[in-house]
Amino acid sequence: QKEANYIRVMYKSEDALASLQLRMDGLLSSARRREAPTHFVCIPIRSEEISANLKRFRDKCELDPHIVQIKSKLHLTIGVLKCFSQDEVKKASEVLTSFASKIAYLKRGKPLRAEMRGLEIMNDDPSAANVLYAEVHLSD
Known about the structure:
By secondary structure, the chain is an alpha+beta fold. Helices cover 39% and strands 20% of the residues.
């Protein structure tokens, strides 16, 4: 039989319990921020036109080919998540599923209009950069 992971708390007053709860929430929040993301959510980009434009841009700017994603890895990042329990994974899945109509719209082959502005690197030191990305802003 599996044991439950509970802690029994005995307290002298409601104020002491409320104070303990605030402290525990703070500790858990702090620990959560230090942890690495557990899930990566993205939409793969399989457009020959976008791939060709990216290659032209890379060549024109004389960028190191290793800093620009190869066609098979090109994607639109939706976000990274920190899901530390099956309940959190389930909740994240439900939220993502709620966007099903938007995803279905994309699958019908209709274009999603977006504008890419600016370039950023995933590193504070440009000489050590290994990822180049542009911010995407959806158009109406």
